[in-house]
Amino acid sequence: MYGQQSQQQNQQMNDQAIATEFLLSSKSAILGYAAAITETATPELKSTLRDHLNRAIYAHDQISKYMISKGYYHPHDIDEQIRVDLQATQSTLGLTH
């Protein structure tokens, strides 16, 4: 029983870590595309970059919704987000020892 519970906690931590990394990567892509658009003079390239920017924004939205549905992300409740982050940190530290 304990081993199964520990495996479930490990899987949840892995899922949360992957989702968090994916969310941060999508945010980085959004910033990169936005910056590139401001530096581009060619209308065709601007259009292409805008398309990519819109896709990155959509991906970020979908990842955020997934994380909220799983209880990994609380963008409107900072106290709860801090609690979740601290719990994830403590679990990670516990897994490494």
UniProtKB/TrEMBL annotation:
<dbReference type="InterPro" id="IPR012347">
    <property type="entry name" value="Ferritin-like"/>
</dbReference>
<keyword id="KW-0749">Sporulation</keyword>
<dbReference type="Pfam" id="PF07875">
    <property type="entry name" value="Coat_F"/>
</dbReference>
<dbReference type="GO" id="GO:0030435">
    <property type="term" value="P:sporulation resulting in formation of a cellular spore"/>
</dbReference>
<protein>
    <submittedName>
        <fullName>Spore gernimation protein GerQ</fullName>
    </submittedName>
</protein>
<dbReference type="InterPro" id="IPR012851">
    <property type="entry name" value="Spore_coat_CotF-like"/>
</dbReference>
<comment type="similarity">
    <text>Belongs to the CotF family.</text>
</comment>
